[in-house]
């Protein structure tokens, strides 16, 4: 059962990067397994940047984009946990801080969904605003900021398709 989870995470990783590069399932699973192994051995979740580095090395996508993909995986995991908790507590009367937790959880899920849709549908707007602001604030760093944001936004490409986003989210629930 535990290893089957890595198969599902490998499929999800493939779906997250399939518009940018070809990644076979075995490589995707190995990338995730190495990241998890490092997290078990080294403190401070160092396995996440290690996973991003391996993804960058094996696929050729930029390291910044790889970090964004790893962050998206964690956000999908967190959202799936919150949704499962919300569903499991929906028929239970809650009191005190748990009522606030439920409300904030719903807000979190909505904000994550809206941010993903916005990043996927209006990347040019985000790049234009970033370019304008950084050029006026720090002209010497302008190109670097725009390039970093561009790489991050490329990680959101799967969200352009509702069907693909739904598949990735359902896979996260498993």
Characterization of the model:
The chain is built from eight helices and no strands. α4 runs antiparallel to α5. The model has no long low-confidence stretch (mean pLDDT 90). By secondary structure, it is mainly α. It has helices at residues 2-17, 25-41, 47-59, 63-88, 97-121, 123-137, 142-154, 162-173.
Low-confidence stretches: none
What is the string of SSEs from the N terminus onward?
HHHHHHHH
Strand composition percent: under 5%
Computed Rg: 18 Å
What is the 3D form? globular
Question: How would you sum up the major sheet?
Answer: none
Question: How would you summarize this macromolecular structure in one to three sentences?
Answer:
This protein is mainly alpha-helical and 174 residues long. The protein has helices at residues 2-17, 25-41, 47-59, 63-88, 97-121, 123-137, 142-154, 162-173.
């Amino acid at each position: 059962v535990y290893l089957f989870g890595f198969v599902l995470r490998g499929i999800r990783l493939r779906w997250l990067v399939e518009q940018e590069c070809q990644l076979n399932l075995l490589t995707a699973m190995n990338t995730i397994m190495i990241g998890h192994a490092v997290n078990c051995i080294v403190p401070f979740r160092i396995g996440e940047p290690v996973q991003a580095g391996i993804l960058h090395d094996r696929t050729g996508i930029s390291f910044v984009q790889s970090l964004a993909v790893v962050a998206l995986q964690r956000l999908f995991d967190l959202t799936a946990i919150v949704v499962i908790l919300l569903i499991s507590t929906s028929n239970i009367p809650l009191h005190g801080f748990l009522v606030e937790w439920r409300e904030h959880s719903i807000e979190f899920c909505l904000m994550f969904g809206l941010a993903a849709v916005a990043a996927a549908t209006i990347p040019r707007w985000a790049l234009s605003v970033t370019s304008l602001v950084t050029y006026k604030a720090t002209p010497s760093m302008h190109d670097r900021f725009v390039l970093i944001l561009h790489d991050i936004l490329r990680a959101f490409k799967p969200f352009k398709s509702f069907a693909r986003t739904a598949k990735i989210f359902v896979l996260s629930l498993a």
